[in-house]
């Protein structure tokens, strides 16, 4: 949580290229290409004669030229526009071909260019100034933004971020990334991002509500850097008590809430779990692993983690369970290294007690850059623009899984392609959070717990399983002794055999 003097709130939503009916083989689709948006800047797919390229292409071209000249993009927004431009160049021919219209070819290309131009534009940006009286008695004005990248499909979706180093361009860039991320995982929501504490959060919620930038059917917020269940519950409570007081779906205005307030099991580790599945789809593929010189599977693989927040912790837990070994973890205040491996639960307990990973007794302090530690898998799970032209040549990993938003600059990405390093893009591999948020949103709209809908099915399934075991034992072992009853223990009955519907409600009231 940023300190009370944090000067601004960051917010941003978006919409996705599925709004355009992007084909399954579009570069914005899931993983059949090791580098999803990795088409080189010199891709020959140029706009037809007589047609000006979309704005994103024009901006992206300038950034691409800078990257080729050895310069990194000046900010997150130009980075996103560069990758967007590459994707559009690759996708354009397929999109034109997919059109079933009898229009002339030139008219089809014009239509596709118009759609691509629309996709890259940020639809709405809200900027607010919130005067806050500090505990010391002096007044301070806090700035906040929320951007809605696209409203083609509603609601918009995106995180709330408390951060001092964020500006309006960063908010717009994060919103655009959410659009593409939602498209990759096929969710019919679009995107958003935000910034400072309870008083500011509630005031910011009111300002967003007055302008239509929050609501269960328009714009759904979610946790991000320095925010979590507490901040989400503040937002939901504020909206439901103010402009949303007549809306029965008011608590669906935000996801990532506590379970007691309409949250969903699995939301907290969702991004980390998504990282596991995203990496798994590549690391278990023999073809991809042969291309980069690794054997398939997690066992025996080493990985390095930059950032030990919510995403980093749960990514570390899931990869550890699959047999991978974490050799180095870095945070803003220091890094630790152990060639034999670092246990996630032990490190989590130490950080919970001490507030830092520095001094962890089962690892040595590491003074160098964690991004350059020899390993099989590098996971940047901190902030944007960590892998740049300056350090890309020193990265020793074979796989880079982008857990953070925009951790790789275009210039660095070109270097990784030349070095045959597999880059799994953020807009695919860290989409686990927004996927589970989508189901929390649906749960809030349905006003029914998923557990209540499945209790009877789970109970019957477990009893059928027990009966199957009993019958198998009787056929093989009980020929002379009759029945061999399988009786559920009291703990099993309490956990599984719960009556559905009214009985469940009465028993838990």
From TrEMBL:
> What InterPro entries does this protein map onto?
Aminoacid_DH-like_N_sf, Glu/Leu/Phe/Val/Trp_DH, Glu/Leu/Phe/Val/Trp_DH_C, Glu/Leu/Phe/Val/Trp_DH_dimer, NAD(P)-bd_dom_sf, NAD_bind_Glu_DH
Q: Which UniProt keywords apply?
A: Mitochondrion, Oxidoreductase
Q: What is its main location?
A: mitochondrion
Q: Where is the Glutamate/phenylalanine/leucine/valine/L-tryptophan dehydrogenase C-terminal domain?
A: 267-482
Q: Which SUPFAM superfamilies match?
A: Aminoacid dehydrogenase-like, N-terminal domain, NAD(P)-binding Rossmann-fold domains
Q: Which family does it belong to?
A: Belongs to the Glu/Leu/Phe/Val dehydrogenases family.
Per its record, how is this protein called by name? Glutamate dehydrogenase 1, mitochondrial
Species of origin reads: Gopherus agassizii
